[in-house]
Amino acid sequence: MASTMVIPGNTPSVLERQQSAVVLLEQEHAMSQARWYAAYTCAKHEKRVAAELGARDVEHFLPMYSSVRRWKDRRVTLDLPLFPGYVFVRLALRERLRVVQIPSVVRLVGFGGLPTALPDAEMEVLQSGLSRSPSAGPHPFLAVGRRVRITG
After folding, report:
1. For residue 75, which phi and psi values (nearest 5 degrees)?
2. Is residue 139 part of a domain?
3. 109 Cβ partners below 8 Å, 6+ apart?
4. Which of 120, 38, 118, 115 is nearest to 81 (CA)?
5. Could you tell me whether strands 75-81 and 64-70 are parallel, antiparallel, or unpaired per DSSP bridges?
6. Is residue 58 within a helix (H) or strand (E), and if so which, with residue range?
7. DSSP letter string over 1-49?
8. Is residue 124 part of a domain?
9. 77, 68 Cβ separation under 8 angstroms
10. What is the pTM of this model?
């Protein structure tokens, strides 16, 4: 008959088991709570991804701005994404496959292989700010060699 030997240092204490149970409950709660995430898309596929998210009944937000482009024979007004390559989605993390399975979605943005939720307050500010100011647009990038003055 085989006997098992219990080494006192290797058995988890009651406190350690309770702490791990609390951590598991917090993770389960985080997985079931709807939060905002940034979905990274293939280049110039943001509108296509947003349409597919709408078809799958996933709450999403794609901030756009209007830009007038001059071609040789005419001027064209284009609606372009304010954040190229990204669409914001609101979902519970356990439902992330509904987003990641869309062909033009590369991944949900995060750290260490895990998607990182965006603060709800920041998304509300972004949405309300863009609804009040329809003329929002991207800031032009600095060019190499351009002189700048740092004030603070």
Report:
1. -105, 140
2. no
3. 37, 38, 39, 40, 86, 115, 116
4. 38
5. antiparallel
6. none
7. -------GGGSPPHHHHHHHHHHHHHHHHHHHSEEEEEEEE-TT-HHHH
8. yes
9. yes
10. 0.74
Would you say residue 144 lies in a domain? no
**The residue type at 37:** Y
- Largest separation between any pair of C-alpha atoms in the chain: 92
Tens digits of residue pLDDT in 50-103? 999 999 999 999 999 988 889 889 999 999 999 999 999 999 988 999 999 999
Q: Rounded CA gap, 3 and 54, in Å?
A: 60
Q: Considering its fold, how many domains does the chain have in total? A: 1
What is the CB-side half-sphere exposure of residue 140 using CA atoms within 13 A? Answer: 4
Alpha carbons 67 and 134: distance in angstroms, whole number: 12
CB atoms near residue 149 (< 10 Å): 4
Instruction: Count the alpha carbons within 13 Å of 119 in the hemisphere toward its beta carbon.
Output: 4
Range of the domain at 115: 31-131
Domain CATH for 45: 3.30.70.940
